[in-house]
Amino acid sequence: MKKEPLHSCSQLIDYINRVGFLPLLPLGIDGWSAEEMVDTDCRYHPLPEGGWEWPLWAWKGEILQESGCAYGKFFNGKAAFIAREWWPDFCNYRRSRYPRPAEGSIEEAILTTLRSRGSLITRELRAACGFTGPKMRSRFDAYLTRLEMGGYLVTEDFVYPHDRHGREYGWGWSLLTTPEALLGREACQPHRSPEESRARLLHHLAKILPDKPVRLYESLLR
């Protein structure tokens, strides 16, 4: 993988398209995250007067809009980018491991709501599915993570609140949708079996993460 630090959003987009899979934050695999690939001035910095700057965090939405890649909690429940070239095989294999939500389940209700609405930020989706009581947020987030891990749910963009001067602030909210709505139905249905997709994914992971044990590549695809 590239060792020179990246200095701009466009450089990071090019890098994601080259490597195919890139977690946002470190996962314990040296050098395999956007945070580790960007220059230090693009990482998180607390400000002396309070608040923070984090150019990489601010780039997330632009990356999705400009690259056409998928973003979600794809590896061990952690957020990552997947280049459009590799999404069909990833989706194909993951859905074979995470069966489609059962009729009448909360997960089916989440997908049905998104199909009818197109896209919703997390809190709107939670309310639309009736998860409005105390301590409901963590339960609902667990359903979302499983759907993302299964290739049924992705982030389309990020929505930020604005202060009275019209300036964005805060961490932002994920605008969630289905990959079929974002990337197209064909992008989720390659003409390969799940096992063929798995073989392609393992081969590619071995290329971008060389000299790692096979069990590491396999663990990333679980």
TrEMBL record:
Fetch the InterPro entries from UniProt.
AlkZ-rel
State one Pfam family annotation.
AlkZ-rel
Instruction: Name the domain of life.
Output: Bacteria
Q: What name has this protein been given in UniProt?
A: Uncharacterized protein
